[in-house]
């Protein structure tokens, strides 16, 4: 009879072992699950990653439409809902990361944190809302968008895709800036279309002159838009038309881009064994 408490304690310990695997706390199990979902290759992880990409693209669409939606009664509900989604995604990525501090130091994390702040204070930071479009750039740099494409396709089109997304992000950011500071009196779709029209005409140096930003601030905005826009157009042309390179890290110096038929690394002379496209 004296051993009854020992029997009870043994049963309780066995029960705890069944609910909590040896060596794993609930937090560690959650982190392991998130790592499998964000970085795994199982069918479940694939569906989760596709879902994350779809949600991210919907968030970017909301950011693009924000100048038009800001005056509607449902805008704040949408804004705070997106804030909750962004915060949940950022928190989940932090838990899934092997080194959360390193993740926080990356520019994509800075962009996400800034976007989260603007979402939490939509009225106070209304004039900075156009910078939320940077989420598109952050999405393209995260790697999630490209992970499920064939490796050969990613290697061939990665630079061009990044150049296109950089140019598109710049156009949308400048459009949001122009709309916020120069076209807000003409609110709604018409004002946003005018801002987009001015941005595209300026970046392409078409210069029709039917829409001109007033004052010195407007002229400086046009100058910066033309200079940066031309640079991004040149970068896009280089990515599309320059001689094709393959991505094959040199085992000695780490140089990643080489000619498809390269035998030696042009940086250190290391012998390379680049597989053919059919391999």
TrEMBL record:
Membrane-topology descriptor: Multi-pass membrane protein
Which cell locations does it reside in? Membrane
Q: Which Gene3D superfamilies match?
A: 1.10.287.70
Q: Which GO terms describe its cellular component?
A: voltage-gated potassium channel complex
- Looking at the record, which segments are called Disordered? 1-30
Protein name, per record? Voltage-gated potassium channel
Q: Which UniProt keywords apply?
A: Ion channel, Ion transport, Membrane, Transmembrane, Transmembrane helix, Transport
Matching Pfam families? Ion_trans_2
């Amino acid at each position: 009879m004296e051993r009854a408490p020992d029997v009870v304690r043994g049963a309780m310990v066995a029960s705890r072992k069944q609910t909590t695997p040896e060596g794993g706390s609930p937090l560690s199990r959650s982190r392991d699950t998130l790592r499998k979902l964000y970085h795994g290759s199982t069918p479940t992880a694939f569906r989760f990653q596709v879902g994350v990409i779809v949600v991210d693209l919907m968030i970017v669409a909301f950011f693009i439409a924000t100048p038009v939606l800001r005056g509607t009664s449902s805008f704040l509900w949408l804004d705070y809902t997106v804030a909750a989604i962004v915060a949940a995604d950022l928190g989940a990525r932090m838990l899934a990361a092997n080194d959360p501090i390193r993740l926080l130091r990356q520019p994509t994390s800075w962009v996400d944190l800034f976007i989260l702040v603007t979402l939490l204070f939509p009225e106070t930071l209304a004039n900075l809302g156009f910078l939320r479009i940077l989420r598109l750039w952050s999405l393209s740099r995260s790697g999630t968008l490209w992970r499920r494409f064939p490796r050969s396709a990613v290697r061939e089109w990665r630079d061009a895709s990044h150049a296109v997304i950089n140019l598109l992000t710049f156009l949308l950011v400048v459009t949001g800036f122009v709309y916020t500071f120069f076209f807000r009196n003409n609110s709604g779709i018409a004002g946003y279309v005018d801002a987009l029209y001015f941005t595209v005409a300026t970046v392409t140096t078409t210069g029709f002159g039917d829409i001109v930003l007033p004052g010195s601030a407007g002229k400086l905005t046009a100058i910066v838009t033309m200079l940066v826009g031309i640079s991004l157009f040149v970068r896009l042309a280089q990515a599309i038309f320059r001689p094709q390179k393959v991505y094959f890290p040199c085992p000695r110096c780490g140089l990643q881009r080489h000619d498809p038929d390269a035998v030696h690394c042009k940086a250190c002379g290391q012998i390379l064994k680049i597989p053919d496209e059919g391999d």
